[in-house]
Write a structure and sequence with these properties.
The chain is mainly alpha-helical. It is built from nine helices and no strands. α6 packs parallel to α9.
Length: about 270
C-alpha cells in the first residue's frame, strides 16, 4: 500500500467527490419527503386498481413504506449515476488512463510494484464509493428525522445496510478496475464497466415490471441489496455472500493479470 499514491488519488477526486456528496445528501433528504407527501396517494391507487400491480413497484422498492422508499431511492437512476461516477467512471479510467497518457511507466519507475499500485488506487476509489453511499443514506436518515418519521426506521440496522450496499458497489468498482488493468485505453474499460452495470440494472427493472420475467432479478447484483428488507429485519446472508464474492473475483483477476501485462508506448 502506497499512502502517497492513495492520498494523490483522493486529491484527484476531491472536487468531484465534494459535489457528488452534496448532491447525494440532497437526494437522500428528498426521499422521505416524497414518501410523506405521496405514500397515501399510492396506497389509494393500489386499492382502486387504477394502476396494474406490476407498475406500483420500481425494482425492489416502493412508496408504500419508508424502508421501501429508501430501497427505491438507492435503485433510482440518479442515485446509481452518483455512485457510478466513482464505481464505474473513476475505477475504469484509473489505470487505463495512466497507460494511455504514458504516465503509468513514470509511476512504475518509482519504487512501487504493480500490485501495490493497484491496491493503493483500489482502496482510494472504494473509499470514495463508500463516502457517497454514506452521504445518501445519511441524507435519508436526516430527512426522516426532520419530518418526524424516524420511528419508521430501525437505525440500529443501518450498519447492515451500509455493509450490504458497500459490497454491492465494491463489486462494480472492482470490475471497473479489472477492466482498467486489461486495456491500454480508457474507452473499452469504461464501455464494458458501464455495460456490466446496465445489464444488472436491466435485469432488476425488467423483472419487477414483467411478472413472467421476475426470475431475472435473482441474476442482478442490484437485487441483492434491499435496504427495505434489511431495515425490517429480513436480511438474507446469501445476499452478502453474493455481492462480496462478486467484488473479490475481479480483484483476484486484476492481481493475476496486471503484473504480467506489457506496457506498450502510447499512441
Amino acid at each position: 500500500m502506497s499512502w502517497r499514491l492513495f492520498a494523490q488519488t483522493l486529491r484527484w477526486q476531491r472536487v468531484r467527490l465534494a459535489v457528488v456528496v452534496l448532491a447525494g445528501i440532497g437526494w437522500g433528504v428528498l426521499m422521505p419527503v416524497i414518501y410523506d407527501a405521496f405514500s397515501d396517494v399510492f396506497r389509494d391507487m393500489a386499492t382502486s386498481g387504477i394502476i396494474p400491480d406490476e407498475l406500483l413497484n420500481f425494482g425492489s422498492g416502493s412508496l408504500f413504506d419508508l424502508p421501501g422508499t429508501i430501497t427505491l431511492g438507492l435503485q433510482h437512476p440518479l442515485a446509481i449515476a452518483m455512485i457510478g461516477i466513482f464505481a464505474v467512471g473513476a475505477s475504469s479510467t484509473s489505470i487505463a488512463g495512466e497507460r494511455a497518457r504514458g504516465t503509468l511507466e513514470v509511476l512504475l519507475a518509482r519504487p512501487i510494484s504493480r500490485t501495490v499500485l493497484y491496491i493503493s488506487i483500489a482502496v482510494a476509489v472504494l473509499l470514495t464509493v463508500l463516502i457517497v453511499l454514506l452521504a445518501i443514506l445519511g441524507g435519508m436518515a436526516g430527512g426522516a428525522a426532520v419530518i418526524g418519521l424516524s420511528d419508521e426506521l430501525d437505525l440500529g440496522r443501518m450498519p447492515l445496510v451500509v455493509l450490504n450496499g458497500f459490497g454491492l458497489w465494491a463489486a462494480f468498482t472492482t470490475f471497473g478496475l479489472a477492466m482498467s488493468v486489461s486495456f491500454d485505453r480508457p474507452g473499452p474499460a469504461i464501455g464494458l464497466s458501464l455495460a456490466w452495470l446496465l445489464l444488472h440494472y436491466f435485469l432488476e427493472i425488467i423483472g419487477s415490471l414483467w411478472t413472467d420475467a421476475a426470475w431475472t432479478q435473482e441474476y442482478s447484483l442490484l437485487h441483492h441489496f434491499n435496504p427495505g428488507e434489511i431495515l425490517t429485519g429480513k436480511l438474507d446472508p446469501i445476499d452478502l455472500l453474493i455481492v462480496y464474492a462478486a467484488a473479490i473475483i475481479p480483484v483476484v483477476y486484476a492481481l493475476l493479470v496486471f503484473p504480467k501485462r506489457d506496457l506498450p508506448a502510447p499512441a
